[in-house]
Amino acid sequence: MNSVKSLAESPDLKHIPSIYAYSLNSTDPPASDLQDPIPTIDFSLLTSTDPDLRSQMIRELDIACKDWGFFRVINHGVSESLMKMVIEKSSEFFCMREEEKKEYEDKGVLDPIRYGTSFNHNKEAVFCWRDFLKIIVHPDFHSPHKPLGFRDVLLEYSKKVRELVKGLLSGISTSLGLDQSYVEEALKLQSSLQILIVNLYPPCPQPELAIGLPPHSDHGLLTLLINNGVGGLEIKRNGKWISVNNDYPNSFLVNTGDQLEIFSNGEYKSVEHRAIVNDAVTRLSVTVTNGPSLDAVVEPAKLVTEEISRPAYYIPMKYKEYLEMQQSNKLVGKTCLDRVRI
User: Fold this and answer.
1) CATH, residue 220
2) What is the bridge-based pairing of β-strands 273-275 and 213-216?
3) Nearest to 133 by CA among 225, 195, 198
4) Does residue 98 sit in helix, strand or coil?
5) 151 phi and psi, to 5 degrees?
6) How far, in Å, CA of 52 to CA of 111, rounded?
């Protein structure tokens, strides 16, 4: 397939090809503006040595995961210059010649580096207005050799994000009534799967007809997102779509994933979200999905089910099997998670 970027740059493009006409098959209502403030987690307080400050932030993290499945993280220790460099170098990758990018053409779900378009065009009847670069950065680190400096930036960034995720999951472990290291040990986070994904959404001449990414939940535990300042992220809250912009400087947007829903036995629901496009400017986002180890068997934590006297609602499944099941099919809401519900 040709990239959406090359299609969007066609000088005579006035209408999108019918294969991108997503809205013709969609009954999703349009999104409204965000009314309630996004929960904000101050990471410096979550990791504070002051037990009262940490306890307060753990309570707020619990509410964010339970009521939203989505929150913002501030004071996280990742430098603003590094975050900006990740966006800059990611943009440079997509500006390379098509033949250079095709060296990494998508071949399989667990390929270390995958460049492609849409989501899974071999399975889709309607394509997404999106190009992507997916890189496995842990437990083994990979990186394209171009553009210059990309590898060093990704290596530092992925390490910093893992430290941040470890701290967030420690707080989540505590908020679930578990030992603070329980999640890390049970899901083998020392060899966790971490995938950095760059999403490119070029300007679209008919944005009302196209979709960047359809409604879906993420397969991992937590996903962290930054972008180039262009809006387009929408999350589903209380059955309605709401628009979210990361207009808070030097912050991450974080959403909960399917493995956290399974592990918490449904206490923390993975949030459904989608990406929309516009007709004026390119949107670029960099997400990092953070999951268990590929060989970890994920199931509801026993203490969670025992404490509230209810059975497990999800069958145990190896994370690798779940990942391959989701990524090898069409992206449709939370249908993948439905397959492991009891």
Assistant:
1) 2.60.120.330
2) antiparallel
3) 198
4) helix
5) -60, -50
6) 45
Tell me if 1 is assigned to some domain: no
Q: What is the dihedral of CA 113, 211, 216, 64, to 10 degrees?
A: 100
Name the token pair of 78.
């990742």
CA distances 270 to 111, 262, 282, Å, are 25, 9, 28
Q: How far apart are the first and last CA of the chain?
A: 39
pLDDT truncated to tens, each residue of the chain (342 aa)? 689 999 999 999 999 999 999 875 555 667 777 667 899 999 999 999 999 999 999 999 999 999 999 999 999 999 999 999 999 999 999 999 999 998 998 778 889 999 999 877 666 778 999 999 999 999 999 999 999 999 999 999 999 999 999 999 999 999 999 999 999 999 999 999 999 999 999 999 999 999 999 999 999 999 999 999 999 999 999 889 999 986 788 999 999 999 999 999 999 999 999 999 999 999 999 999 999 999 999 999 986 656 556 789 999 999 999 998 887 766 677 878 888 898
pTM over 0.85: yes
Q: For the beta carbon of residue 260, count every other beta carbon within 10 angstroms.
A: 27
Question: Which residue range forms the structural domain that includes residue 183?
Answer: 17-338
Tokens of 112: 């270390």
Gap between the Cα atoms of 210 and 188, Å rounded: 39
Distance, CA of 74 to CA of 71 (rounded, Å) = 10
12 found inside a domain = no
Contacts of 307 (CB under 8 A, 6+ apart): 177
Cβ burial 142-158 (10 Å sphere, 16+ → b, else e): ebbebbeebbebbeebb
For β-strands 70-74 and 252-256, DSSP reports them as: antiparallel
- The reply to whether 8 falls in a domain is no
Strand order of the sheet with strand 233-237? 32-33, 240-244, 233-237, 273-275, 213-216
* DSSP H or E segment with residue 233: strand 233-237
| Closest listed residue to residue 171, CA positions, set 239, 73, 292 | 73
Given the structure tokens 């990791």, which residue do they identify?
47
Total domain count for the chain? 1
